[in-house]
Amino acid sequence: MRTDSANELLSRAVAAIRALQAEIRWKPGKDIQHLRTRQHYGHLPRSATLIDYEAIITSILRDDSADVYVYVWQSEVIYPTIVGSHENRRWLVMFDLEGVMETAFPPTDPEVYLSDPRFQYLGTMKELLA
């Protein structure tokens, strides 16, 4: 059985997901910075635009089979995290509880990355958004 605080966290995470599904929002100036970082690491081609990057993010946010986690940083900052596939690579889409993007990237080894105990699995998008 979920506690009230767990139910509140789940409700806030779902609201943040729905907000991002409607509109991708970034902290001021962070959109281009994150795009350039993804290009630098070879996650996106140099020719990729912010529209291309956000299209990947949107496709993952709208994937019913994507997995939903919360990442808890230092016991107080919580980032809902959606994990889905794009072109046969697993991507993580992380954002805050207000629905503002933190980052999106394909980790080198998603299973190892997600085995960090700070990630807590909540279910699939279909299960949580039903």
Short synopsis of the structure:
The protein is 40% helix and 27% strand.
Q: What form results from the Cα inertia axes? A: globular
**What is the quaternary state of this protein?**
single chain
Order of helices and strands: HHHEEEEHEH
Strand content: 25-35%
Helix count? 5
* N-C termini distance: 19 Å
Number of domains: 1
Side-by-side strand order of the widest sheet:
4-3-2-1-5
Number of strands: 5
- Mean pLDDT over the full residue set: 94
Low-confidence region ranges: none
> In this structure, how is the largest beta sheet organized?
5 strands, antiparallel
Structural class: alpha+beta
Radius of gyration: 14 Å
Would you mind describing this structure in some detail?
The protein has helices at residues 4-22, 30-40, 50-61, 110-114, 125-129, and strands spanning 67-73, 77-86, 89-95, 101-105, 119-124. 40% of the residues lie in helices and 27% in strands. A hairpin with a 3-residue loop joins strand 1 and strand 2 (77-86). The relative contact order is 0.20. Strands 4-3-2-1-5 form a five-stranded antiparallel β-sheet. With 130 residues, it is an alpha+beta fold. The protein has one domain (4-129).
